[in-house]
Amino acid sequence: MIQYRKILELYFTDVSQRTISTSVGSSRNTISDIVKRAEKLGLERLTDNMNNHWLEEFLFPEKQAIEKGFFPPDWEKIHKELQKKNVTLKLLHMEYDQQARDGGKIPYAYRTFAENYGKYAKKYKATMPIRRKPGEILEIDWAGSTLSINDRSNGGNLTVYVFVATFPYSQYSYVEGFLDMKSANWLTGHIHAFEYFGGVPDSLVPDNLKTGVSKALRGEPILNEAYRELADYYQTVIVPGRVRSPKDKASVEGTVGFISRQIIAALRHYQCFDLRDLNQQILSKLNELNQEAFQKRPGSRKKAFDEEEKSYLHPLRQTRFKLSEWRSAKVQPNYHIQIERMYYSVPYEYIQSDVDIRLSKDLIEVYFKDTRIASHMRLYGEIGQFSTLTDHMPDNHRLYLEHTPANSREWAKTLGSNMEEFVAILLKNGSEKKALNQLMSLRSLEKRHSKENMDLAAQNLLIASSNPTVSVYKTILARNKKREHAKDDGSLSKMVTNENFGFVRGANYFGGNPK
Q1: What is the DSSP string of 145-212?
Q2: What sequence ranges are listed for the domain Integrase catalytic (predicted)?
């Protein structure tokens, strides 16, 4: 017996045909025939239901007919002929029957002929049937047809775009109208659909729209960041349909046409001035369709969903997802970014860097390589407003911004009461701008002198002068520091000859102290 499955399993793992022949005990010609037929039919991977019997029927259907003594139909030719206008399967069977009898072979009866063709069409020409699990997939798209509402401002019409989401398993659907197809409405449609269904599916299959997919790469499409956030929040995954592959979303494509006929066409003459009113009409029609009985099986969409699918959905989050929008910007030399003509600061280290911005209704967050570096409350109203955090400034900018009379008094208080009094005199005696410049110079001294020495110098200055100045203060501070150094190295004691009379030059100065 030919081991079709093992042969293809080895071939799909890049094992040579010579090695496969040795492994399964079949000739190299047999291996080659199987591989060529699989490649011709587009078989690239195996599923669980593809056993040896299934693969034999799939790869070599003519063998089944020959083994049973019947004349094998050319299904490829029959399929092509059936696509022609006015050609029916009954007509093709009559031609096949005549051909078989002319050759002295036994033809299939029409019923068997039709059944075998159905199997061929499913395996060869139609999309490979995929049995969806309940709650596994939700397919989403915008309907091609639109509705409209009356515009009160000019008497014209506003276009309404129709959002459609459907479960392939039960065909249970959600429909809503929006005034545009932008990202915010795309995400809102998903949120409302989840709430309508009362749960979240395992995965979402959208079309390759810019509202959902930033770049439709064949292997791995790049998702819109806001759309990815929504999926992460509701703990589902997004699997975009392949480009120009409508069969990837066959259920929603079919539902879109059904919705277009049953809802959009039915409401094409409905006159209203409010989108909310139109959506109430859409919802009413939608509920009727979901409860309408199936034609080819018992029950309805709603019944199938409630009884067989709803229990498989993931529960909704208690808090609704907050809509957001992502943008990119470059940090300006003034360490701000511009969003909608408003300006928001970021740490100055990121000047000239490209950053990503997440915008929600009340908040703006700035990210650099997936790390959040800043956040601000969103600004509204008059354009040109700034939101600047002092932590984002360089040290010299922050010092300048914080250099105020009140801030200077607070700084003086940390040094001592004498410095506090000195600063108060400077602010009182001169103009504010001049005083702040003097205080800037004064505060820079803290880098080289201790707080105690600075407050002591202020005390000495206040005792010695009724009109203290910063220049005199610096002189006293320098003299005090020099005395302190002299005292530490012992030179001060050598200069003292009589404590009752202060400092004198002494004998050493005049050379009168012979050794």
Answers
A1: EEEEEE-TTTS-EEEEEEEEEE-TTT--EEEEEES--SHHHHHHHHHHHHHHHTSB-SEEEE-S-TTT
A2: 130-310
Assess whether 283 and 330 both reside in one domain: no
Distance CA 171, CA 294 (A): 10
Q: What angle do CA 264, 269, 274 make, to 5 degrees?
A: 80
What's the rounded Cα separation, in Å, for the pair 382 and 325?
Answer: 21
Same domain, 45 and 93: no
State the pTM of this model: 0.49
Answer yes or no: do 149 and 196 share one domain.
yes
Task: State pLDDT tens for residues 341-375.
Answer: 899 999 999 999 999 998 888 889 999 988 899 99
Residue 31 located in a structural domain: yes
Tell me how many domains the chain contains: 5
Q: Which long-range contacts (CB under 8 A, 24 or more apart) does 408-412 make?
A: 408/436, 408/439, 408/443, 411/443
Residue 170 lies in a domain: yes
pLDDT tens, 227-268?
888 999 999 988 876 555 555 455 556 666 777 777 888 887
Range of the domain at 412: 403-489
Indicate whether 29 and 57 sit together in one domain.
yes
Query: Considering only CA atoms, which of 168, 171, 172, 173 is closest in space to residue 189?
Result: 173
> Which of 241, 268, 410, 401 minimizes the C-alpha distance to 334?
401
